[in-house]
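Key idea: predict the complex, not the pieces.
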Amino acid sequence: MTDPLIEVKNLTVHFPTDDGIVKAVDGVSFSLMPGETLGVVGESGSGKSVSFLTVMGLITRDQAQIEGQIIFQGQDLLTLPADEMRTVRGEKISMIFQDPMTSLHPYYKVGLQIAEAVRTHQKVSKQEAHEQAVEMLRRVGIPRPDERADQYPHEFSGGMRQRAMIAMALSLNPDLLIADEPTTALDVTVQAQILDLLDRLKQEFNASIVIVTHDLGVVAEHCDHIQVMYAGKIVEAGDRRDIYYNAHMPYTWGLLSSIPRLEEETTKERLNPIRGLPPSLIFVPPGCAFHPRCPYVFDKCKTDVPELLPSDGHHASRCHLSLADKERIFHEEVMART
Amino acid sequence: MGRYLIRRTLFMILVLFIVSLITFIIFVKLPASDPARRAAGKQTTPENIAAARHAFGLDKPLYVQYGRFAKGLIPWPGLFLNEDVYYSYTNFVPVKDEIFSRLPVTIALAVGAAATWVLMGIPIGIISAIKRGSFVDRASMVFALIGVSAPVFWLAYLFLYIFWFKLGWAPPSGIPIGESVIEAVLQGRFILPWLALSLTFAAFYARMVRGNLIETMHEDYIRTARAKGLSEKRVIYKHGLRAALTPVVTMFGLDLATLLGGAFITETVFNLPGVGQYGVHAILTNDFPSVMGVTLFGAFFIALANLLVDIAYAFLDPRVRYT
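Result:
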């Protein structure tokens, strides 16, 4: 049994604000083995992006109260000094972001921006770094990469920019790539291309990937493991099959039901949104944070915080319903709907 | 780009015509005194006054009078501010000669002040933005508030009072007759004018740079730069400032051009014989061709600077292209 590539233990990230403490991430634990893909799913404000920005060291103790451990290749990243963290960031762990339109610097050529990442971590000449940048652009499927490297981001389409971002993120052959909503800003056809590209590059570069998204549909075929987050906590975690074919948490059911289906066009059925709004992260509801929106709520949910309890070796959920009830409801109601 | 330049140049000439027309209307509608009468002297005859009026061209219909001035607007050697029309009603010296003989003073004042406010304003803005909320930031912004609030005529007299009259650190105002502009600069006669003139701008630039940089540092591409593992210094100076300073270049071009057209108040208070002081004198003596000349000279600089700044922008921001 190899060691996990990254192991996050009981991570909390709280932002002090004038209105109170925003509990963006509240006791998150997970691990990821080398070469695996993890999907992290949740609504806006569920803490998914903040968790991974903290892993990247892009949210620091200056900005937030951070507790817990992030063990990456045997080191706790939260105890690393800033300059050592900088060598991890970009070289060992890299990240691509939601909006490729704004994530590249508008005033610098694309090739230069990739070469800059290379030169930050490797002692190579400008020429060599540029050649590496062109090579990376080729590998992410950008045609005429030598010409494209000399263009500015505004001359790229959205999908091409996200490819360029991926090229930049993978240019140092990192062990972990965090993709924060990599396809949200893109057209549906381009989304599939980008996800397929990530799959292929994962093999080529032998990297682990985390895909952060609000869309369960996106991660369906691309992730080995999926964890669902709600109000700063993981509410359900499991293998892909666990989540899609045997989900145990009403919030996950809501997410599954809200994936649009092609058949709905013909049956004239409307989308099934999850009722209500995500909770305030300052005044998190007592008990289960999801209880105000949960159709299966009972008294215990309003007072007791449910634990993340495993139902078997790889599947865990945070819900007071009995396992029998969970399985019955999922198969009778949720599967019927989806 | 070629067509763009032609279009912009034509537009620039149109702006100059509009400025000149407004100036002309003000002169016609608000006659402080009859220039012909003044030129003819105290003991004079109606014939003399008529002769002077004829010599100035003031006996012609208004549209002919304006047309003569308008011809001097065409930015072409021999036509621009031509001496047939643009000469002083007071001492009959061509306006062009007056302006160009005074230009070195104005240039020395404007360029020196511009360098001062850039060297003060931009670093203060950067430090404030980086150390946002710190004591340095608060102190800088208090300085900026005072700077933008203090009128230049008040600052000028205050500086003269403190640094020349009380402390004797700086030379008095004015340039002695026979001393060249370069000598005056070397003797420090421009230090107080530079400071007084630049303080408002420095304060304004500090605020603008701070605001721009803070805003830029929240951009997604700054997060990308950090995610690459760049040092914070490089993130700020290479990625942040590049975007934050681009609009500052625009402002700078326009502000410098405005001052090159004459820093009226500063030149008057410090008794510097520049274009601005000439302009003030011309207004006070109702010397219309001089007023028109100085106005158009300033308008020309501003219009030209607008054009240059727009062209520069295409080089600074790759997203901007002119067709």
